Structures are given as structure tokens and as C-alpha cells.
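Worked problem 6 (solution included).
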Amino acid sequence: MARGCRALPAVLALCAAAWSCCAAGRALERDQPFRPPPGWVLAGRVSPEHDVQLTLALRQRGTARLTRLVRAVSEPRSPQYGKYLSVEQLRDVVQPSPATLMAVLKWLQSHGVEDCRSVATLDFLECRMPVSTAERLLPGAEFHRYVKGQRSVIRSPHPYVVPEELAEHIDFVGGLHRFPAERSVVSRAWAKEGMESRGQRAAFHLGVMPSVIRKRYNMTREDIGVLPNNSQACAQFLEQYFHQADLAVFMKLFGSGFAHRTEVDHVVGHQGQGRAGLEASLDVEYIMSTGANISTWVFSNAGRHESQEPFLAWLLLLSNMSALPWVHSVSYGDDEDSLSQAYLQRVNVEFLKAAARGLTVLFASGDDGAGCRRVPGGNHTFRPSFPASSPYVTTVGGTSFKNPFMVTAEVTDYISGGGFSNVFPMPDYQADAVRTFLRSAPKLPPSSYYNSSGRAYPDLAALSDNYWVVTNRLPLPWVSGTSASTPVVAGMLALINDRRLQRGQPPLGFLNPALYRLRERGHGGALFDVTQGCHLSCLDGTVQGQGFCAGPAWDAVTGWGTPNFPLLLRALTAP
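Solution. The predicted structure is:
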């Protein structure tokens, strides 16, 4: 509704006319749902003079060429394998046309917007302006404040439009609709208490800690980093902070069996002084104990301005830094159907850009199994998660020990996210593996529940159940979620990069083309095949809460399985 309209009967016609006038143009994200997550409460309109920060995703050139480049540098059989691009070379591929840059800058200047900054690849602009200016710039937008506890964000519940002549130059404008996605690790203390009461040998249960991970995945005390030019990173978004003191306590308790570091080397962004977050502590402690003795960065993107999108801010950092860690672990996700097509497609290109630079980007597959969504008409479908469903990231699912109190074989963790994208088609690198799964799985959900031609995930998995974490100086048991498995896999891949760099080989880069060829190259033993267990899904009369089930080779719950580190190292360092 146009600003100032209050829907009183006497002025309905006037308001409709105002909306018609203001809405002339193109809605870039009309399909973006506006659903404040649970707990966020509307606190009212924002004053016209209050500053907001908007992110303009400028239309890129060369995305088809970029796709071909990524295929060439990521496929081990390609003569271009490992010949990654610098950020300057990447800019030359994707930077917007001069016509786009001129049109957008002229439009901004005509509204008095001058406080803007670009990124190294020239395809994003971050601009600060008063609310009154933003609402004139983007007709339809109406900025409100939403609060949850001590946190607040500024968002517009109404769609925005840009002038018709600008629509071909801008993919979307960030900072208007999307709320920070909330993904948190869970505690299963109640489940373990129940198991103990049934007479299980609880005395033998110590929980997952670095020594357990190293034993299960056949890592030795010699499996540590040695090169100063290798690094790994994790990213945190939701006012989640780690404390260096917690890391020191964690390593004192659990790190005696291997050489390690007790401090994060680089924090990019704002590191708050409040209480440590459980998820942030988990990420840092397990990437640094698995990728032991490797220089570690933390990207802390809490969104310091109320109108920022923290995840988008992290993507802009990747576009703006010439030197970055080679491996990134990210425990973040949102429902695919909660995001606009324009946003999904553009963020997917951002992962292409990371792949072109040789970055290995891992995302947690989520903790909702196959997910569930009721579609118009009353039927259920599974609900894929993004960025887990992007074809240009490596997605990590979760497992549990078959015997919860022993270091044994693994089975599916019932919360492990997995399934098929409704947006991105199945990439060539996984087509054979996924079609074999769809053809040979003894029991599949009805085909109406999922898109069998979509990008399938996860790609691999690791333990995600019953971790020990130190947070605010206290060791906490029974922490679970794919937020645990992802930094564990990331640390192993950083170690493999360490060995590759020692041998003069390039870093792994985008892993999936190599990962999906391991079996055909004779390296099937590089991953422990997880063949038992199913994950959760819709509680209805058809699937009755069961999604996909694990099986031989690749499956939609644990991917290819969990790492057998020495054989995975051998496979991924072989000429």
C-alpha cells in the first residue's frame, strides 16, 4: 500500500490510485514470500529519516562462460583442472556491462543516493540512504521494524518495484524481505536418558569428541596441518559468537592426542562480547580439532545494520577479498520455497564464482530430514533446503553410531537433511549415481512428494549426533545436528589441501565432480557406505513421517557416506 494510506473507507479510491501510480515498473521479487519467522514481532513503521542499507545485485555478464570455466577447473580429467581464477580474472568474466553500471548509478544519483560502495567484482552495490529515499527509490516498499528479544531488523512486508528500464540491469535488492534464517543445533539429552533407563551400557558412553572422530575416521596424531599458507574458515550469522577462551578449554579437555592451535587467527567482521553461541562454538571447535593445526578464520556476519541480510553480507565478502581460506564450512539454510527465484539463481552464481576461485564451500544439509510442505490443494510434498540444494556447493548430511555407546559402524541420523531441489536441475556430475539410487532403492516415497529430476543432496556425511561442546567455559554433552558434521568434513578437506599443496598440487576447489568419480576410479573405500536408516518427513497417512532411506552407494540421506580419511586422502591426492 502506498505510504500514508490507512485503508479508511473514505480514501480507498485515493489509496488505490496512489498504489497504481507508485507501482509502475517491474517487481523483481514478487514471488518472495514475506513470512516473519516465529518470534519476530512487528514494532511499527520506521521513521523517514532513519538510515537503511540496501544491497543491489547488478546483472552480471558472462555467467554461461563462468559455468564452462568452473566445469573445466573442477573436473580432474580436464587439462584446466586446478587453474583457478584470481578475483581480478573473475571480475573480468562477470562484471556488469558499462550500460548497466551507468543506468544504475544515474538512477541512484537522481534520487540523491551517493553513499554507495562496490565490491571487487563490481556486481554488487551497497548503498545507505534514509528510509524516505529508499521508499521513493523502490515504490511499494514500506519499512517496518521487527523485534525478537534484543535483536531487531528492518524489512518491508510489501513487494518493491524498480523502473521498467532498470529491470534488465538489477537481479534483486537485498535488505527488504528476507529475515535471518534460524538454524540451531539441538540437545538430545532426553533421548539418552530414555536409552539409559532401558538398560543400555551407558557407562561406556562418553559422547562424540575429537578422539572419537579420529578413531572412527581412521585419523592418526600425524594427521595435522603443517603449511603456513593453508587455511580453513567457518561462517556465523545470527549474533552467534565464539569465545577464544572456550576454544582453549575445549582443546585442553579434548585435544591432547594431536598438535593443535588454541586461537582463531582471523576474525572477519564483528565479534561480539556477549555470551558465546552454542553453534558458533561447535563450528570453531570441530573444524579446528579435525583440521588440526591449520590456520582458521571466522567470518562473523551478524548483520550489524538492521536492514542487512547477514548471509548476503558474507557473499559480498567472498566477492571482495583477494585472499581467502580454501575451505569454508557453513551451517546455514532456508527453505527453497521461502526465497524468490531471482535470489536463488543469483546466489547460485555466487557459488559458481567461489568455485572458479578454487574454494571448497560446504553447507549443512539441515536437520529436518526431507522436510514437509502442504501445497495448495491440501497435499504434502517434501521441502528442500537452500543453499544445500545448490549444485555448486558440497552438502554434508548426518549419521549416528549404530551402537550409541561404542565407536561402531554408522547409520542414518533421522534428522539428516536430504532430497531433491525444486529449482535447480540435476547436474551432470551426479546423474548416474542418483539415477541408480532411484532405480534400485527398495522403497521410495511416492513420486508426487519430490522432484526426481532436481539437484539431489547431500553429497556425503559425517557423525552429527551426541557431540561435546565447550561454550561459556562449560562442557556440554549431547549436541546434535548437521551443524556438527559439516565442520568435521571441512577440517578433513583442509588437511587434504595441506597435503596437496605440499606436493605442488592445486587445492581441491569445488569437490563434487571429483567426489562423484571416486568409485569409478577405484576409490570406493574412501567413504564408509552408510546403508541403514531413514530420515523423517511429512507426518501424514501416506509416508507416515518417513522420507528417504539409506542404501548402497549414493543415497538421499547420507550421500556417498562418511570419510575413511587415509583412503580419501590417497584418492584426492592421486595424480
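Discussion: The first strand starts at residue 41 and ends at 45.
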